[in-house]
Amino acid sequence: MIHRKTQLVRIVVLLVIPILFSCQLSRETKKTPYDAETYFNMGTVQLEKGENEQAIAFFNKALEGNPKYVDAYYNRGIAYRRQGLNELAISDYTKALELNPKEARAYANRGNVYFDKGRHDDAISDYTKALEIDPKDAITYYNRSYAYYLKKDFDKSWEDVNKARALGYRIPSDFLADLQKASGRQQ
Length: 187
Prior knowledge:
mainly alpha; Serine Threonine Protein Phosphatase 5, Tetratricopeptide repeat
């Protein structure tokens, strides 16, 4: 009788332990294997490689782990814009700005998306906010000058061209020629 009980205990132990172990494994596999920062870094690597869909997936994971991760919204916005998903890019830049209103890059990049969509007043507004935060951003002066040019506000366009030049930015010669012709002036 003791032999049968021992055998029964062994069988139960042999059956129960693997079941318990597999339950623990399934709980562990449901955990996020990386933290938000690691997913963000993985997304950034993919973004730099031009793998925008993979980058977006990693930034999504980073934001699941930390919904207030400003840089993840910012970088996902870049990936969305590269994919032509402009409304999603605007949404991500806006969320980044809600979380950090001093993020000049988010204003500048949201301005670029507005510019792409032909919303030049919105682009100028965002470029202006970016320049209030970072007044040494020559590229943003150039971008704003181009938006002013398209609105035929040539005086403001020239002001920004000259500010960009003073900061060391080389203005594309074709844009300068177009601005000179349209404005009737050389500087």
